[in-house]
Design brief:
Blueprint (H helix, E strand, L loop, with lengths): L6 E8 L4 E7 L3 E6 L12 E2 L17 E7 L3 E7 L4 E8 L8 E8 L7 E8 L5 E9 L2 E9 L7 E2 L7 E3 L13 E5 L9 E2 L6 E6 L15 E6 L12
Parallel strand pairs: 9-15
Antiparallel strand pairs: 1-2, 2-3, 3-4, 5-6, 6-7, 7-8, 9-10, 10-11, 11-12, 11-13, 14-16, 16-17
Main location: secreted
Enzyme class: hydrolase
Catalytic activity: Hydrolysis of terminal non-reducing alpha-L-arabinofuranoside residues in alpha-L-arabinosides
């Protein structure tokens, strides 16, 4: 992917173009494409989604943005992002114009910095009119994820859990947690395409990065993260949507 900082990858198959997309962050939201996901050398050089950074993420309105996530419906593609400062942002483009033309970048959720922090990930719930979005937050017990729902990608997001802080995955509801927190995760999906669809009739599985609380490193880049998977047991707000 060339020199420089690269982080927060998202991979999906964009069916209209029969092309794989890798979305990730540098200083800006970037993407690379491939026709063969099995060949790690096939990815194209990084390209920018935006020719100019939107005003909403530049001072004095903003403090930058990161952790980009793309999801599409039947007519549009949306890019969600966070800013480590209490905002969930959304941009949009026409499905036929993707990956070009992203515009109308707005804040769709605001809160305290630690409550709407980073690493949002958004999904369509199969056989329903529901979308869910997860956003990483920070508590004294470590990082965790909160959950919201909406009936459309450009709609209003409402809490989707009766747990404190509409928690989705926290130290309080995960058994035998080996990590200090649950960070930068992604649900295991039922397909690979741009709709980011999950099946509520299957146990939710969440892939996340975790770190040993006994290991203290001041430099974030050097934290020895490990991958983990948590699997839902019993009924939850998402499984209740199974039809």
């Amino acid at each position: 992917m060339g020199p420089g900082y690269r982080a927060a990858p998202q991979v999906f198959y964009f069916a209209p173009q029969k092309t794989w997309y890798l979305v990730y962050q540098g200083a800006d939201p970037l993407y690379s494409t491939s026709k063969d996901i099995g060949d790690p050398l096939s990815w194209s050089a990084p390209k920018k989604f935006f020719p100019v950074e939107p005003d909403i993420v530049k001072p004095p309105q903003g403090v930058g943005w990161l952790d980009f996530w793309v999801i599409c419906d039947d007519s549009k593609c949306y890019m969600f992002a966070t800013d480590d400062n209490g905002r969930l942002l959304r941009s949009e483009t026409e499905l036929a114009n993707f990956p070009n033309g992203f515009h109308n970048t707005v804040a769709v959720m605001t809160g305290k910095k630690e409550d709407v922090f980073e690493a949002s990930n958004t999904y369509r719930v199969a056989r329903t009119d529901t979308y869910i979005t997860l956003v990483e937050a920070i508590s004294p017990q470590g990082r965790y994820f909160r959950i919201w729902k909406s009936d459309r990608l450009d709609g209003k997001w409402e809490p989707f859990s009766s747990a404190p802080m509409n928690g989705f995955a926290t130290r309080d509801n995960v058994e035998r947690i080996w990590s200090e927190g649950i960070s930068h995760g992604e649900l295991v999906r039922t397909n690979t395409d741009q709709t980011m669809t999950i099946d509520p009739c299957r146990p939710l599985e969440y892939l996340f990065q975790g770190n040993d609380p006994a290991v203290r490193v001041n430099d974030y880049i050097k934290i020895p993260y490990r991958l983990g998977v948590i699997t839902a047991k019993g009924e939850n707000p998402v499984s209740a949507l199974c039809r």
